[in-house]
Amino acid sequence: MPFAISVENITKSFEESRIIDDVSFKLAPGTSTVIVGPAASGKSLLLKCILGLTSIDSGNISINGLTGRNRLKEMNNVGVMFQENALFDSLTVWENIAFRLISQKRISEETAKSIAREKLSQVHLKNDSFYKYPAELSGGMQKRVSLARALVTDPQILLIDEPTAGLDPILTTVICNLIEAHKSKFGSTILAVTSDMGVAREKYDQMLYIENGTIQWSGSLESLQQTGTEPVKEFILE
After folding, report:
1. What DSSP state is assigned to residue 162?
2. What pLDDT score was predicted for residue 191?
3. What b-and-e string marks burial along 136-158, b requiring 16 or more CB atoms within 10 Å of the CB?
4. Is the domain 5-237 a CATH 3.40.50.300 member?
5. Count of CB atoms within 10 A of residue 21's CB?
6. Predicted local confidence at residue 124, as pLDDT
7. Using CA atoms, how far apart are residues 9 and 21, in angstroms rounded to an integer?
8. Phi and psi at residue 211, in whole multiples of 5°?
9. What pLDDT does residue 1 have?
10. How many CB atoms lie within 10 A of CB 17?
11. What is the mean pLDDT of the chain?
12. By the 8 A CB rule, do 160 and 81 touch?
């Protein structure tokens, strides 16, 4: 069985600055991994490279065994939750959730609405949100709409960037539980970026610590004491 995601020796520079420097890792299907590290260390850029939103200078990325640009054929099996939600302001909640279904699969509006309503319920939003626009929603509600859109195709792989940023503890728990429920139901592979070390420690199988564009430690929380350097331990544990 191929790795769900394989990243091999990738680099990415902007002008004279190398932001990602010889990064490699492999994610087995059904695992959950979180990328942590200081601000501006390349965490979100790494996700964009995997998605093909940003080209890499060298190296190779594969998804479900498809390498290079061919991996983009697997995008229908990938759900994405962006850091700033990236909802379409001119579309209603249901249209945002069902956007991929309508634009790529050409299903009927009636079917798309039915699926959108189901996903809205899964993220614990009421039907009165269905025809609202993103600007009419709170930040926490927008996060849940963004997650519903990411889950709309029941993806095998879920890439999520700062899913709990700016949320209170209650909504943080709600979002984390929804992601865990999806993983449990579909056996999905999850790769996340977070600045919330409590979430990183408690909710993921393993962590990748990135600093200055390189992965300086990877492993489970249990292995951190044995394999992590003091700066990494201080960052993750304190």
Report:
1. S
2. 97
3. ebeebbbbbbbbbbbbbbebbbb
4. yes
5. 16
6. 85
7. 8
8. -150, 135
9. 59
10. 8
11. 90
12. yes
Ordered by start, the domain boundaries in the chain are 5-237
Query: What is residue 3's three-state secondary structure?
Result: coil
Greatest extent of the chain over all pairs of C-alpha atoms, in Å: 56
Tokens 């190398």 locate to: 18
> pTM here?
0.91
How far separated are the first and last CA of the chain, in Å rounded?
38
Angle between helices 169-186 and 139-150 in degrees, nearest 10: 10
Burial label for 226, CB within 10 Å (0-12, 13-18, 19+), is: exposed
pLDDT in tens, 158-196: 999 998 888 888 888 988 998 999 999 999 999 999 999
- The first and second tokens of residue 179, run together, are 């992601």
- Positive or negative: CA dihedral 110, 116, 121, 126: negative
Cα separations (Å) of 164 from 21, 92, 97, 196?
27, 22, 19, 8
Tokens of residue 89, six digits: 């302001």
